[in-house]
Write a structure and sequence with these properties.
Length: 223
Amino acid sequence: MQIIETRHGDVQRHGEGPVSVVLAHGSGIGMAHEFMQTMAAALVAQNFSVYLFEFAYMQQIQKTGIKRPPPPVARLELEYLHLLQTLNLQGAYIIGGKSLGSRVASLVVERTDALAWLALGYPFHPQKKLGRLRVEHLLTSVKPGLIVQGTRDALGSYDEVLGYALPEHIDLHWLAHMDHSFKPYKASPYSLLQAIEQSAIWIEQWCQNRLKCNFTEVPSDEI
């Protein structure tokens, strides 16, 4: 792992694959969380380079140990965009994240050079607030997206999401009997680790088939 120091905070780079994935964390976990580290390792195993970063509010949580809610999503959008400008990735890249991070990525992707965006558990609505949907921008989006979702996710279950009529360029993969954190119910065929590894496989396949990624090229920032 390489630590990249930026004015927006440290960024972790994992792997040296020709296609990069920039991942933002969920609302209550930072980039050091087991989920984020395990997902980075799984994606590296699929020949990606992975960049992990933290929004400013999470950096403060890590420094002070005091929990705080995320700021308005518009501020997080700017932070994500500024981070991408600082990284200045030259090769093919995808942006995404876990939960909140994926929502922010989906909101900014059209303003970036990213090929597409991905979600590891998309928060379609707040918990127990099915009327507050976060899908309007998805329905008018242009760039491809991939959502990996637990069928029993309290922020967007299988039955709920099928009713949203998402556009065809947003692909969905379902983890049977798993929740928003990819934690399994008893009926699930996956453990948490298996769900993460399967997600990475789906992401690589999507990148090859939908995005036509070339995994034989060397990242242009290393030439």
